[in-house]
Amino acid sequence: MLFEDPKMQAYYDSLPPKVRAFLENAKVEVGSPGELMMIGEHFRNAFADQEGKGPAR
User: Can you give the pTM of this predicted structure?
Assistant: First the structure.
């Protein structure tokens, strides 16, 4: 995904590959930095729980 907002792009780039792949494949439309962070952290924690690592911090 490419974002015009450099802060959104930097945050997206910092997400784990599994989370970025999920967002790409789901074709999620993100309208704000807050929305991206909410979605990103939800899936970062969900994937960490699936791998038995607990919530990512």
Answer: 0.77
Q: Give long-range contacts, CB 8 A cutoff, 24+ apart: 34-42.
A: 36/3, 36/8, 36/11, 36/12, 37/11, 40/11, 40/12, 40/15
Nearest to 15 by CA among 54, 43, 52: 43
From CA 41, how far away is CA 39, in angstroms rounded?
6
H runs (alpha helix) in the chain: 6-14, 17-26, 33-50
| Digit-coded pLDDT (tens) for 34-49 | 999 999 999 999 988 7
User: How many Å apart are CA 53 and CA 28, to the nearest integer?
Assistant: 25
pLDDT in tens, 11-26: 999 999 999 999 999 8
